[in-house]
Amino acid sequence: MYKRKKKLNSKLLIILTSITIILLLSISVVLKRTYTPVESFFKDIAMGFNKVIMYPFTAINKTKEVNQNESYIIQKNVNSSLEKEIAELKETLELNRTLTEYDIENATVLSRNKSYWFNTITLDKGKKDGIKENMAVITKNGLIGKISKVSNNSSELKLLTSDDINFKVSVSVKVNDVDNYAILNGYDKEKHLLKVTGIDKMTTVKKDDIVLTSGLGELFPAGIFIGTVESQENDKYNLSKTLYIKTRQDFNNIHYVTILKEKK
C-alpha cells in the first residue's frame, strides 16, 4: 500500500513539474520578453525532455507488425525528407565559406510552435556557444530573422515574418545602383510577401529590384540579401510607397540556420 502511494506521488510530482515548465514557457512567449534565470533553467530542461521523449518513437516499428506496403511508403517519405535536410545542411556549410567577416555558428531547429509558426523558432545553440540577443540569422537564401531570447543551451529565433510590430529592419532598395533606405516591418500572410515602407512615392521602383540590409542602426550587418520587389502600392496618404518583397526562403521549411557573430 505504501509503495503504491509513493509511486502515485511520484507520478503527480512529474505531472505538476511538466505543467509548470509548459506554463513558464507559454508565459515567456506571450509576453515577448527576455528569459529570466528561472525560465532559462526550465527552457534548457524542456529541450532535454524534448529529445528524450521523442527517442522512443523511433523504435515503434520494432514492436508493431506493419504492412509491408505501408512500411515502404513511410520509409520512402522519410528518405525524401532526409535528402532535403542533407541538401539544406550542405548549402549551409557552403555558405560558411563566404562569411569571412564574421564568426559563424550553425544551428539546428529544435522545435516550432504551431500557434506561432511564422513568429519564432527554437534553436539548439545558446549562451554556451556565444549566442547573444539581436544577432542576425541567415540561410543561403538571405536574412530570415534575429535572435530574440537566449538560454544556456538554446535560443529563440524571431522570424522576419513575425507579427511583432516592434521588429523593424533597416533596408536598402537598389534602384539603378542607388540606395534608397526604408523599413521592413510586416508580413502579408495571404500574399506570402514581406512589406517595406517609407520609400518616397517619386522613386521609380521596378519589379525584381533587390532589397538588402542597410547596416543602419547597427542591428544587422549591411548587404545581407532579403529579397526582390514583387509589387508596390501608394500609401493611403499618397506620400510614400509600400513595397511587397518576395524572398527566396520558404519559411515553412527551415531546418538549419547560420548565426552571425562579430569577430573577436
Quick summary:
By secondary structure, the protein is of the alpha+beta class. It is built from four helices and twelve strands. The protein folds into three domains: 2-59; 79-163 and 252-262, Thrombin, subunit H (Beta Barrel), CATH 2.40.10; 169-246, Thrombin, subunit H.
Tell me what the structure shows:
The chain is of the alpha+beta class and 264 residues long. The protein folds into 3 domains: 2-59; 79-163 and 252-262, Rod shape-determining protein MreC, domain 1 (Thrombin, subunit H), CATH 2.40.10.340; 169-246, Rod shape-determining protein MreC, domain 2 (Thrombin, subunit H), CATH 2.40.10.350. It has 4 helices and 12 strands; from the N terminus they run H-H-H-H-E-E-E-E-E-E-E-E-E-E-E-E. The strands form 2 sheets. It has a 6-stranded antiparallel β-barrel. Strand 1 (102-111) and strand 2 (120-123) form a beta hairpin. Helix 1 (2-31) crosses helix 2 (37-54). The protein is globular, with a radius of gyration of 22 Å. The N and C termini lie far apart (62 Å). 27% of the residues are buried.
